[in-house]
Write a structure and sequence with these properties.
10 helices
């Protein structure tokens, strides 16, 4: 495969009104090609309600097993008796990956992920793929089996890169592993101009194959300033991708934008 295919993907839809608003604007702009929804979060229903009126936009489920922020918490949506090892003492999800990896029962993980699927389906979403918040489902063999078996059960491809596939992993028969999973590039604390330069370097250096570039865009609102300590990083991502210059740069580098609806039709 000589062509450079790029999925510009927005994580964390549903996590805030500011994320939903940013995601909708970027879809309408025509520059992002895919997103996924955090079903346990407060604004997931709002985003799916919008999507039902705009089903042309590629949208998956962002399987969520942790709640990383100090403010703006969310809890598992599976019943407590079937997901109890995923709840912290305050009845929210655990804040870091370490605790569920150490303590969570894979059966509870399966039950919670299926509850997220069922809730999204009930709200009307037709997901194009499943992917992973904070990569938690990839950190334990039992969690991974839940991730992949639900993909097979619901006939929805799951996100994985080729270098994550272990020898003898038959689960990947039910998906198309992508080649690379990347971000904009650069470390934390960069201003918008510096981050734009990092993005251009990243895009110019894309290799042939399928790459997913993951964003976490938000609008700049008091809500975000309260919830996310480094929320300005996400605001910068939103503003960079709303710029006409970014779209022009992608075109000039002969990059083909695709999404998870089309990924299964690409011949390797």
């Amino acid at each position: 495969m000589e062509k450079k295919y790029l999925i510009i993907h927005m994580d964390d839809m549903g996590s805030s009104h500011a994320a939903n608003a940013a995601g909708i604007n970027l879809f309408k702009k025509g520059i992002v090609t895919s997103c996924s929804v955090m079903v346990p979060c407060a604004y997931a229903y709002d985003f799916i309600r919008w999507w039902k009126q705009h089903p042309q936009y590629d949208t998956g489920i962002h399987f969520t097993l942790t709640c990383e922020w100090d403010n703006g918490k969310w809890a598992p949506i599976g019943g407590y008796e079937t997901t109890k090892t995923l709840w912290n003492p305050d009845y929210f999800m655990w804040q870091t990956n370490e605790t569920p990896v150490k303590n969570a029962d894979p059966t509870d993980v399966y039950n919670e992920l299926e509850a997220q699927i069922q809730r999204a389906l009930h709200w009307g979403l037709v997901p194009t793929h499943f992917d992973r918040h904070m990569h938690t489902v990839m950190l334990n063999d039992g969690f991974y089996r839940a991730y992949t078996s639900l993909s097979q059960k619901y006939k929805v491809p799951f996100q994985i890169t080729k270098n994550e596939v272990k020898p003898g992993d038959n689960a990947v028969k039910h998906t198309t592993p992508i080649d690379y999973l990347i971000g904009i590039g650069g470390g934390p604390g960069l201003n918008k101009k510096q981050k734009t330069e990092c993005l251009r370097e990243t895009l110019a250096g894309l290799k042939p194959g399928i790459t997913q570039l993951t964003l976490h865009p938000v609008m700049d609102t008091p809500e975000i300033q309260y919830i996310i300590p480094d929320g300005y990083e996400r605001v910068n991502e939103y503003e960079i991708f709303m710029s006409d210059d970014t779209m022009e740069y992608i075109k000039n580098n002969q990059i083909k934008l695709i999404n998870y609806k089309t990924i299964q039709n690409i011949l390797f």
